UniProtKB/TrEMBL annotation:
<protein>
    <recommendedName>
        <fullName>Legume lectin domain-containing protein</fullName>
    </recommendedName>
</protein>
<keyword id="KW-0547">Nucleotide-binding</keyword>
<feature type="signal peptide">
    <location>
        <begin position="1"/>
        <end position="24"/>
    </location>
</feature>
<dbReference type="Pfam" id="PF00139">
    <property type="entry name" value="Lectin_legB"/>
</dbReference>
<keyword id="KW-0812">Transmembrane</keyword>
<feature type="compositionally biased region" description="Pro residues">
    <location>
        <begin position="287"/>
        <end position="317"/>
    </location>
</feature>
<keyword id="KW-0732">Signal</keyword>
<dbReference type="InterPro" id="IPR001220">
    <property type="entry name" value="Legume_lectin_dom"/>
</dbReference>
<dbReference type="InterPro" id="IPR050528">
    <property type="entry name" value="L-type_Lectin-RKs"/>
</dbReference>
<dbReference type="InterPro" id="IPR013320">
    <property type="entry name" value="ConA-like_dom_sf"/>
</dbReference>
<feature type="transmembrane region" description="Helical">
    <location>
        <begin position="328"/>
        <end position="352"/>
    </location>
</feature>
<keyword id="KW-1133">Transmembrane helix</keyword>
<keyword id="KW-0067">ATP-binding</keyword>
<keyword id="KW-0675">Receptor</keyword>
<keyword id="KW-0430">Lectin</keyword>
<dbReference type="GO" id="GO:0030246">
    <property type="term" value="F:carbohydrate binding"/>
</dbReference>
<dbReference type="GO" id="GO:0005524">
    <property type="term" value="F:ATP binding"/>
</dbReference>
Length: 492
């Protein structure tokens, strides 16, 4: 033990607490930045290319649908919230718009037979329009003022219940906080637009809020919540239990008429029963560049031979006076430029790597300031995860004893963190404390329960209360300070 006098012992507990949480939430909560990884039911024009979800494309009088495959149960008091980034690119010149699209909650993923093209947005036809057996709620960014849908303009957002005739609509605009007034927003501009749809199941209020996505796209994390206008564009009392069936699907629908648009979903966050996770705008893919509008008359062909091709830079060496020295000069500068490019490329690559592997701290981590340990330090502290450092194996990982080479620690704190770690690593997820409870333990608002084999459930690391006391006793002589004490939150 004397050999360790220069060291302060800290018990490192790795608790991976998160796997069951994620799988339980996967059904009613998700975030997509790359739709190739999304589990979607698609039909019609809907495709996924380069990670983008395209709802409609270059086909006249057609529809496209994409639904999250897993159905969700809604009760009378269910809330839900979603936000997504979309881009609508008109395919005509001079510019005229296609039909638009909608976020949809529907009782089935197959709306092909029901929804028609043009103003129906792939949802409603003359056969089913305004029929309560539809069980459809939709929020539409609509880019065509169809007469049969009594649309107000060719640039509006509407709430549809079982019918293409919106129950509420407004011209697309967003509230600018600094100016204190509404600013109009062109939906079919080809630019990325954020839309939030929030339903409170107690208040029974549905809000729809728009905002342009800042350009150029931020390159460090920027949460969409930070740019959400405080005033929604639409806010309406809706009783979803009058609309929804028991199980419902969420997704998107869109249509084209004689005119068409490329309509894309670039990112999508959804949650049933609470606020959807904010999108990180730096992660949202850019919309594809709008294709050059088709030219109606054939382009004037350039008069033959009279003009040389204007774009090519002169590549031939200087004319008649070229000699050995000028050739050497060219060769020299070429090599120098080549080397410079390689070095520049190397620097860019290193910066990229540094950024790629940079640690991202989330807000709660900053607040409670737990320190992180690199794998290298953990490896050293546990002597390379040696067998004789192994204290036991919990339900979600092995627990090793480790010594960190520096820092001052309070024995009581160390003891507490050790206990919390053990509570986290129980095999039965229900016995493990929640993150909220852990924070309360750490702040001292709730006392950490004592640990025994009887209460902690099967799969506890093989150490007891007494062992905690014994193992930390040697450290209690040292002059500990609170700031350096930390616990590893293994997974999130
Ligand atoms: C759309 O399709 C038509 C024919 O199918 C083609 O002529 C036109 O170039 C396409 N437009 C774009 C923007 O791809
Ligand atoms: C709306 O669609 C109709 C038919 O598809 C078209 O004639 C009209 O020009 C469109 N309106 C706009 C504003 O693009
Ligand atoms: C609505 O739910 C009932 C059973 O709860 C089912 O019979 C019916 O087919 C559903 N309607 C639709 C449109 O899916
Ligand atoms: C839709 O149906 C309701 C009754 O279910 C009726 O009151 C309303 O007028 C209808 N709307 C239209 C546009 O037909
Ligand atoms: C509504 O649709 C159902 C079948 O989906 C049909 O039996 C009923 O007649 C329709 N109601 C109206 C008013 O069209
Ligand atoms: C779609 O149409 C089918 C019949 O073609 C009907 O059974 C079904 O209820 C309809 N679904 C919706 C959501 O309207
Ligand atoms: C709001 O208005 C201010 C002042 O005109 C402008 O600088 C800012 O870009 C606007 N914000 C958004 C999100 O458009
Ligand atoms: C909807 O907007 C109103 C007014 O801004 C607000 O009071 C309410 O809390 C919002 N509801 C939801 C579900 O966002
Ligand atoms: C801005 O638009 C919202 C929603 O349409 C409306 O309630 C509000 O009165 C408008 N505010 C101003 C200053 O025009
Ligand atoms: C909502 O609709 C359901 C079904 O029609 C009804 O039982 C319930 O009372 C309504 N809730 C409110 C608050 O109106």
């Amino acid at each position: 033990m004397t050999g360790l006098l220069g060291y302060i012992g800290v018990w490192i507990l790795i608790c991976i607490h998160v796997t069951p949480l994620v799988s339980a939430q996967g059904r009613t909560q998700f975030v997509h930045y790359d739709f190739t990884k999304a589990d979607l039911h698609r039909d019609g024009m809907a495709t996924i290319e380069d990670g983008l979800l395209q709802i409609t494309g270059n086909t006249t009088k057609s529809t496209g649908h994409a639904f999250h495959k897993t159905p969700m149960k809604f009760t009378a008091s269910s809330s839900f919230s979603t936000e997504f980034v979309f881009a609508i690119i008109p395919l005509h010149s001079p510019i005229s718009f296609g039909q638009g699209m909608a976020f949809v909650v529907a009782p089935t993923t197959d709306l092909r037979s029901n929804g028609t093209e043009t103003s129906g947005l792939g949802l409603f036809s003359t056969a089913n329009d305004n029929n309560t057996t539809n069980h459809i709620l939709a929020v539409e960014p609509d880019t065509n003022d169809s007469a049969e849908a009594l649309d107000r303009s060719s640039n509006h957002v509407g709430i549809d219940i079982n019918s293409k005739i919106s129950v509420e609509s407004a011209d697309a605009s967003y509230y600018n906080e600094t100016e204190g007034k509404n600013q109009t927003l062109l939906l079919a501009s080809g630019n990325s637009i954020l839309i939030w749809i929030d339903y409170d199941g107690i208040e029974k209020r549905l809000n729809v809020t728009l905002s342009p996505v800042p350009t150029p796209k931020p390159d460090s994390p920027l949460l969409s919540s930070s740019i959400k206008p405080s005033v929604p564009l639409l806010s309406r009392y809706i009783n979803i239990s009058e609309i929804f069936n028991e199980t419902m699907f969420v997704g998107f629908s869109g249509s084209t008429g004689t005119l068409k648009s490329d309509q894309y979903i670039l990112a999508w966050s959804f949650k049933k029963g609470g606020q959807a996770e904010s999108l990180d705008l730096s992660k949202v893919l850019d919309p594809p560049n709008p294709p050059p509008p088709p030219i109606s008359s054939p382009p004037p062909s350039p008069p033959p031979s009279s003009l040389p091709p204007p774009t090519l830079p002169p590549t031939s060496p200087p004319k008649s006076g070229s000699n050995r020295s000028s050739r050497a000069l060219i060769l020299g500068t070429t090599i120098a430029a080549f080397c410079f490019l390689i070095i520049l490329g190397g620097i860019v690559y290193l910066l990229y790597k540094k950024k790629k592997y940079a640690e991202v701290l989330e807000q709660w981590e900053k607040e409670y300031s737990p320190q992180r340990y690199s794998f290298r330090n953990l490896y050293k502290a546990t002597k390379g995860f040696k067998e004789n450092q192994l204290l036991g194996a919990g339900g979600f990982g092995k627990v090793y004893m480790g010594m960190l080479p520096s820092g001052n620690f309070k024995a009581e704190e160390v003891k507490m963190h050790l206990k919390i770690g053990m509570l986290c690593s129980q095999s039965n997820p229900e016995n493990r404390p929640s993150m909220r409870l852990i924070v309360q333990y750490l702040e001292g608002n709730v006392t950490v329960p004592s640990i025994s084999y009887d209460t902690s459930g099967f799969g506890m690391p093989n150490i007891s209360n007494e062992m905690v006391t014994q193992l930390t006793a040697t450290s209690s002589l040292a002059n500990f300070s609170f700031e350096d004490v930390t616990v590893l939150f293994g997974g999130r």
